[in-house]
Amino acid sequence: MIVFVSGGARSGKSLVAEQCVQQYADGKTCYYVATADIYDSEMAERVGHHQARRANHWVTLEAPLNIEQAVAQVPNGHAALLDCLTLWASQVMFNTQEDAAPVSETEAFALLVRALHDARRRGVTLVVVSNDLNEALLPASAEVWRYVEFLQGLHRWLAAQADRVVEVVAGQSIEWKAAGAP
């Protein structure tokens, strides 16, 4: 099962997604595919808050870029949270890590496709979180506009592939596509 959870910044989508993973995990170990690269104190504080909220039955897999490799580490039949596609897409497009090879948008899309297909094939429930940036003001920069287009393209594809699509507004879930619905 693939679940796509989106919403605005600080809307509560990560908490909703964590609860979703725990429901699907049915008591098994939960996996957290972390795409965040900690680059300042605010990001470190946010990551620490997320880690403190999760219980000890969560295993974290760090994947700033290679989400396919991280998802492959989740055992068959388990549930995992990929948090978040927004950060992952920004690292694809604006990667400044010296030790990381650049990844094109085409290669990144292929990584996402393979990760989802692998999860589905192995019975892994994968809950993917991302920020909905379409509700913000249009970007003035061509580079940021290209990023928004890339991310929204990923969102459209992911929503079409997902069994469930959930939007979070002010901590409340709105089910746009339910499992089993066309």
From TrEMBL:
<dbReference type="InterPro" id="IPR003203">
    <property type="entry name" value="CobU/CobP"/>
</dbReference>
<dbReference type="GO" id="GO:0005524">
    <property type="term" value="F:ATP binding"/>
</dbReference>
<dbReference type="Pfam" id="PF02283">
    <property type="entry name" value="CobU"/>
</dbReference>
<feature type="binding site">
    <location>
        <position position="83"/>
    </location>
    <ligand>
        <name>GTP</name>
    </ligand>
</feature>
<feature type="binding site">
    <location>
        <begin position="34"/>
        <end position="36"/>
    </location>
    <ligand>
        <name>GTP</name>
    </ligand>
</feature>
<keyword id="KW-0418">Kinase</keyword>
<comment type="pathway">
    <text>Cofactor biosynthesis; adenosylcobalamin biosynthesis; adenosylcobalamin from cob(II)yrinate a,c-diamide: step 5/7.</text>
</comment>
<keyword id="KW-0169">Cobalamin biosynthesis</keyword>
<feature type="active site" description="GMP-histidine intermediate">
    <location>
        <position position="50"/>
    </location>
</feature>
<keyword id="KW-0548">Nucleotidyltransferase</keyword>
<comment type="similarity">
    <text>Belongs to the CobU/CobP family.</text>
</comment>
<feature type="binding site">
    <location>
        <position position="62"/>
    </location>
    <ligand>
        <name>GTP</name>
    </ligand>
</feature>
<keyword id="KW-0342">GTP-binding</keyword>
<comment type="function">
    <text>Catalyzes ATP-dependent phosphorylation of adenosylcobinamide and addition of GMP to adenosylcobinamide phosphate.</text>
</comment>
<protein>
    <recommendedName>
        <fullName>Bifunctional adenosylcobalamin biosynthesis protein</fullName>
        <ecNumber>2.7.1.156</ecNumber>
        <ecNumber>2.7.7.62</ecNumber>
    </recommendedName>
</protein>
<feature type="binding site">
    <location>
        <begin position="7"/>
        <end position="14"/>
    </location>
    <ligand>
        <name>GTP</name>
    </ligand>
</feature>
<keyword id="KW-0808">Transferase</keyword>
<dbReference type="GO" id="GO:0009236">
    <property type="term" value="P:cobalamin biosynthetic process"/>
</dbReference>
<dbReference type="GO" id="GO:0008820">
    <property type="term" value="F:cobinamide phosphate guanylyltransferase activity"/>
</dbReference>
<dbReference type="GO" id="GO:0005525">
    <property type="term" value="F:GTP binding"/>
</dbReference>
<keyword id="KW-0547">Nucleotide-binding</keyword>
<keyword id="KW-0067">ATP-binding</keyword>
<comment type="pathway">
    <text>Cofactor biosynthesis; adenosylcobalamin biosynthesis; adenosylcobalamin from cob(II)yrinate a,c-diamide: step 6/7.</text>
</comment>
<dbReference type="InterPro" id="IPR027417">
    <property type="entry name" value="P-loop_NTPase"/>
</dbReference>
<dbReference type="GO" id="GO:0043752">
    <property type="term" value="F:adenosylcobinamide kinase activity"/>
</dbReference>
